[in-house]
Design a protein that fits this description.
The chain is of the alpha/beta class. Helices cover 48% and strands 15% of the residues. Bound molecules: adenosine monophosphate (AMP).
Length: 217
């Protein structure tokens, strides 16, 4: 039962790879971004606090996201966890260690998706998902086979994240550089970090991650 972190700037492919691992390995994707978007959509107290912060591309408080992860970790008992978009600060990294230890679990791998930042803006501003089944697409790199129709479920409704615009993406990258990238050395000292070329295609990146998790890299 592996517990892994996918670490990398916005648009590096964390969500795509987490979904793939969830489908192929029966692990559970724990995405604080998805949890916060659900809270915003449901209008919960957490959602009301997070909405404007997310729209600006800044980070929501460590206390809020750590509490969300704690709740979902319990729901994922017995399965490996893929932390996607968490931890994003040193405090969150410490909180995660405690949350795992309290449950008799530990971190096995930190997989860094290394990417070229300029390419990320193009990746992020072009992405959209099916409003019905959540399948992910991209205007340039992965359009639907038939324009306006979801390949998976046939729905004709799609959505784009409100924070996937260029200005917010720049802020999200600054937040990553200032607050998230500095946690890498902490994991490096523990010998947990493996770096993968996130600029490669989805399947290639997936294969590189599989090789690490299967102990071959
Ligand atoms: P993501 O879907 O991971 O790109 O996250 C979208 C937005 O949710 C981020 O830009 C932050 O505003 C917020 N968020 C998600 N995860 C965290 C986290 N671990 N810590 C702080 N804010 C977060």
């Amino acid at each position: 039962m592996l517990n892994i972190i996918l670490l990398g700037p916005p648009g590096a492919g964390k969500g795509t790879q987490a979904a793939r691992l969830q489908a192929n390995r029966g692990m559970i994707q724990l995405s604080t971004g998805d949890m916060l978007r659900e809270a915003v959509a449901a209008g919960t107290p957490v959602g009301l606090k997070a909405k404007a912060i997310m729209e600006r591309g800044e980070l929501v408080s460590d206390a809020i996201v750590s509490a969300l992860i704690g709740e979902r970790l319990d729901a994922s008992a017995g399965k490996g966890a893929i932390f996607d978009g968490f931890p994003r600060t040193g405090h969150q990294a410490e909180a995660l260690e405690i949350l795992l230890a309290q449950r008799g679990r530990k971190l096995d791998y930190v997989i860094e998706l290394a990417v070229d930042e300029e390419a990320l803006v193009t990746r992020i501003t072009g992405r959209f998902t099916c409003a019905k089944c959540g399948a992910g697409y991209h205007d340039t790199f992965r359009p639907t086979k038939v324009e306006g129709v979801c390949d998976v479920c046939g729905s004709t409704e799609f959505k784009r994240r409100p924070d996937d615009n260029e200005q917010t993406v720049r802020t999200r990258m600054e937040e990553y550089r200032a607050k998230t990238a500095p946690i890498l050395p902490y994991y490096e000292r523990k010998g947990l970090v493996h770096r993968v070329d996130g600029m490669a295609g989805v399947d290639e990146v997936g294969a590189a991650i599989d090789a690490i998790l299967d102990g071959g890299a």
